[in-house]
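Worked example 3. Consider a protein that binds cytidine-5'-monophosphate.
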Amino acid sequence: MSEIDNKRIIIALDFPDAASTRNLLRVLDPAQCRVKIGKELFTRCGPSLVEEVIRNGFDLFLDLKFHDIPNTVGKAVAAAADLGVWMVNVHASGGRDMMMAARQAVANSQHKPLVIAVTVLTSMSQSDLADIGVNVSPQEHVKRLALLAQQCGMDGVVCSAAETEMLRAACGADYVLVTPGIRPVGDDANDQKRIVTPVDAVKAGSSYLVIGRPVTQAEKPGEKLDEIFRQLHGNFPNLC
Ligand code: C5P
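Given these inputs, the predicted complex is written out as C-alpha cells:
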C-alpha cells in the first residue's frame, strides 16, 4: 500500500490547449504541488503533453477513468505507466477482474504509478443509480465499490468530501482518498454541489485535494495557491 505524503494538492489542468497549460505551469512549483490531466486536455494534446509536463518535474495524475474489458484496461494502464505518470485511475464498476488486470499491469511495469478507482461519479443521484439497476443509496454503493477496489489491490479511490470520513473509517489510514470539490473560504462553488475547504478536507481524512478553477481561473494563480498553502499550514504545519 502506498504511503501518503505531505504534497497534498493536485492542480487540475482543465485547459483546452497546451499554451494555456504551459502558462499555468510556469507559476507552479513541482516541489509544492502535483497536477492532473483529464479527458479534455489529453484528447486535444495527447501523450506528448503528458511527457512534457513530467519532464518539467511534475508528478502527474492521468485522470482518464478507464472502464473496459480487463485486457484493454490492463494495457491502457501499462501504457500510462510507460508514460511515467504518478497516478492513474479506472472505474471500480468495471469489476474485480478489470481492477485486478490494472493492478497486474502495474506490477509488471518498470515504473509503478498509484492506481486508484472511481466509485460512484459525484454527478450521479439516487435516481440515476436506480435507472441503471442499483437500488441502494449512493453512500452504500460507494462503500461497497471502495472495499472491492481495496480487495483488488487498488491504492485508493476518488471520493467526494462528504464520503471521506466514512471511507477513511472503512478502508483504513493508508488508503488513498483523492477529493475534488475543494473551495478555499469565500470562493465561488462554480458547478460543484458539495464543496469543502482545503482544511476541512484534510481534517476529514482526504489524502490529496484536487483543485481546479479556484487556482486555474484566478487572476494571479501563483498567489492564490500560496493563499491556500497558508490556510493549510495554519492547521497542518507539516504539509507542503
Ligand atoms: O474546477 P474544480 O476545482 O471544480 O475542478 C475539479 C476537478 O476534479 C475537475 O478536473 C473535475 O473533472 C474533477 N472531478 C470532479 N468531481 C469528481 C471527479 C473529478 O470535480 N467526482
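Take a moment to read the result before moving on. The first strand starts at residue 9 and ends at 12. DSSP finds ten helices and eight strands in the chain.
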